[in-house]
């Protein structure tokens, strides 16, 4: 197995960080229990599952850090990620 390609530019590192945060937000809101807006680590949870899912579903590329643009910038398949997220149980 070859080592993963290193993300070198600051812009790509930022894109990767935004994507990783969105995935973490999705995990947090799917696992959220009623009565509290903070995760186990004390970080604020996103406002709702619908908000996070809408970011992943949005195909509008006008916003620099839209899901579509981040995927293009990182060279990943946005639809493959969406498909994988749909298969993960809530």
Biggest sheet statistics: none
Q: Number of folding domains?
A: 1
Broad shape = globular
Unreliable residue stretches: none
Which whole number gives the mean pLDDT? Answer: 82
Q: How much helicity do the residues have? A: 40-55%
- Give the termini separation: 31 Å
- The radius of gyration computed from the alpha-carbon positions, rounded to a whole number of angstroms, is 14 Å
Number of strands: 0
Strand content: under 5%
Give the class from helix and strand content and strand pairing.
Answer: mainly alpha
Order of helices and strands: HHHH
Give the SSE layout:
Elements (H helix, E strand, L loop, with lengths): L9 H22 L17 H9 L9 H8 L3 H10 L3
Overview of this structure, please?
This protein has 90 residues and is mainly α. The protein has one domain. Helices cover 54% and strands 0% of the residues. The chain has helices at residues 10-31, 49-57, 67-74, 78-87.
Give a summary of the structure in a few sentences.
This protein is mainly α and 90 residues long.
């Amino acid at each position: 197995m070859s080592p993963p390609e290193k993300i070198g530019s600051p812009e790509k590192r930022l894109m990767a960080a935004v994507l990783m945060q969105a995935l973490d937000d999705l995990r947090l809101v799917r696992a959220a229990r009623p009565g509290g807006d903070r995760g186990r680590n004390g970080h604020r949870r996103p406002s709702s599952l619908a908000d996070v899912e809408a970011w992943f579903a949005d195909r509008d590329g006008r916003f620099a850090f839209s899901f579509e643009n981040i995927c293009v910038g990182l060279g990943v398949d946005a639809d493959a990620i969406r498909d994988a997220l749909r298969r993960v149980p809530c």
